[in-house]
Amino acid sequence: MDPEEYPEIQRWAAGLRGAPDHVHFLTRHCTLGQWLALGRALWPRFVLDRGCVVWGRVYDREGFDEWYRCLGGDTHRIEATLNRLVLRDVIDCGDGADDNAALHEVARTVERSWRAALSAAYPRRAFEVVATDTDDGPVVSFFSVPSGEPPPIGDDGLWGLDGPWLNVFPRTESMTVAAALPATGMTHVARMDACDMTDPDGVFGQFWEKFRFPDYFGWNWSALLDCLRDLNWLPADRYMVVIDNAGALLSGAVEELHLFVRALEGAAEAWANSRAKPGRTGVPFKVLLFCEPGELPGDLHRTWRDHSTG
User: Fold this and answer.
1) 266 to each of 3, 75, 202, 218, 273, how far by Cα in Å?
2) Nearest to 244 by CA among 289, 306, 211, 197
3) Angle of the 200-210 helix axis to the 221-230 helix axis, nearest 10
4) Residue 83 burial (CB count, 10 A)
5) Is 6 in contact with 102 (CB distance < 8 Å)?
6) pLDDT at 297
7) Which of 13, 89, 114, 271 is deepest in the core (most CB within 10 A)?
8) What would the pLDDT profile of 32-61 be if each residue is shown by its tens digit?
9) pLDDT in tens, 270-307
10) Residue 162: which residues within 8 A CB-CB, separation 6 or more?
C-alpha cells in the first residue's frame, strides 16, 4: 500500500492545495523526537552475547541468562524467541481492510530495514529476517543462519510455484515456522493441530479461525475452497498451512478426506495460476504436514513430497 492510499492521509490531503505527499504529512505531524525514535526503530542497535545477536531493545542481561539456560544455549532458538516485533503491540490501529494492508506494508518495511541493519552490523554473519502474519497480526523477527547452511526446510523446492503443494515432515523434525520462510516478503502462516480436526466441523473451525474467514463462510467444502481462493481480506506474498499431528486429520470421517485434499489442492492451483492474470504473479500456497509417513491416510499420499529422508 502506498502511503497516499491510506484514508487518514487522504483525508488530511483533501483539504490542502497542490499535491501533498507522505513526506508533507510527516512534516506536519511529526516532531524531531518522533523522527528520531522512528529512525531507531527502523535501524536498531544489537547486542552480541555468547554468540547470540539480540535486538538491543529487548536485551536484559538477567533475562538473557535465563533464556540461555532454559534453551540450552541454542543460538537459533534464543534469537527466534527474543527478536520479535509484534506490530499491533506498538501501533494503535483499527482492524479494517485498509488498516491491515497498511500494517502489512509497515511490516515489510521493518523487515527490509532490519535486514540491512544486521548486514551492516555483522557483515560476516548470515541472518533470516522474516515478516509473518500470525493470529496477533504481522510479526517481524530475525535469527542467525550458519554460513553456508540454508534453513532446515526453507528451500526452493518448498516454495517454487511448480513444486508440490503438499509436503510431509517427520514429527521429530527440529523446525520453527520462521525457519521455513523465505528471506523476504509477507507470509501468512496458519498453524493447526489435527487433533482438533478429526471431523469436518473441526477442519472448518480451524481454517475459519486461522484464515479469519468472513461471517458468510458456509461451513462446507465448497465454501472452504471459495474462501481459500479469495483471501482478499488477508493479503500476503505467500500462504503456508502447517498441520501438526496430521495422522489424526479427519480420522473420524475418513470418507471426506478426498474433499479436504480437493479443496486445498484447488486453492494451491488457483494461487499458483494467478500469474496468468494481467499484472499478477503466482502466489505460493503450501501445506506442511507433521507426522510419520505411515500415519497418513491414503488420500494424502497422492501428491505429497516426503522430507523424512532429506
Assistant:
1) 34, 39, 20, 17, 10
2) 289
3) 20
4) 26
5) yes
6) 61
7) 114
8) 999 999 999 999 999 999 889 999 999 998
9) 998 865 444 567 888 999 888 765 676 655 544 444 44
10) 272
10: nearest Cα among 81, 46, 19:
19
Set of cell numbers at residue 304? 505429497
Neighbours of 163 (CB within 10 A): 15
Q: Where are the domains of the chain?
A: 45-145, 156-306
Report in angstroms the alpha-carbon separations of 165 from 49, 262, 293: 39, 12, 16
Asked whether 54 and 117 are in contact (CB, 8 A), the reply is no
For residue 152, is pLDDT > 80? no
Which residues does 245 contact at the CB level (< 8 Å), separation at least 6? Answer: 171, 193, 194, 195, 290, 291
Distance CA 55, CA 81 (A): 11
